[in-house]
Amino acid sequence: MHVVTFVSQKGGSGKSTLAVSLAVAAQLDGRRVALVDLDPQGSTAAWVDARMKLREWVSEDSWPADIPLRKVGAARIGAWIEEARARNAGNNLLVIIDTAGTADDDVAAALRGADAVVIPVQPSPQDMRALGPTLKQVRDHAAGKFAFVLSRASHLQVRENAEIVAVLEKHGPVACTVTDRVEFKRAIGLGYGPHESTTTSKAAAEIDGLWDHVKQKIEGEPRG
Ligand SMILES: Nc1ncnc2c1ncn2[C@@H]1O[C@H](COP(=O)(O)OP(=O)(O)OP(=O)(O)O)[C@@H](O)[C@H]1O
Ligand SMILES: [Mg+2]
Predict the structure, then answer these.
(1) Claim: this prediction has a pTM higher than 0.90
(2) Considering Cα of 206, then 119, then 79, then 215, what sign does the dihedral take?
């Protein structure tokens, strides 16, 4: 069993979007996946709910594969991860944890229990300035396990994005860039991942890049 935790104290950076998109990519690659939503806002829980509701109005042969939500009280996350690891020793369960944009002990426990940590960062001066506390918390609890994702990047600002990636790389690895695309909003609003909305999707290709990075980190081998 492996655990991937998404974290960033800056709200709206793309944690929930990337968490559920990665869940679909990993499942398509043969992993058994479960989601945990530690954010009282409940974006990831709402996505799981929307995904279940698809069964009421799409035909059975196009039902998306079930991705369960594990309900865990935030204060129990550390103990829950240990129990889940004991129960799932030797199987290929991937637990993906979405967190609230806070710096509390619950997030720290979700970082300590993770095999890989993803920090989405939007390419803006405000977001770069706000990164300090998140980075400190991740270094304190998950040093060596994290990677950044340049998230919601504009496809019009190629040079600026490259400059920001270069700055991020001074602090840690950058897994990939995920562009701001309507495809993400459309798919995720309905309970799908970008892989499931269209046949050739640039959004899906970007998430594959993230999955390749995470998979290498947790399984120690490149995909494919
Ligand atoms: N790559 C993307 N392309 C288009 N829209 C995106 C993308 N990533 C995120 N968004 C949109 O940006 C908003 C914030 O994204 P999301 O909820 O994933 O961020 P978050 O970090 O989980 O936020 P919070 O801190 O509030 O939990 C949402 O409206 C989402 O649809
Ligand atoms: Mg969120």
Answers:
(1) yes
(2) positive
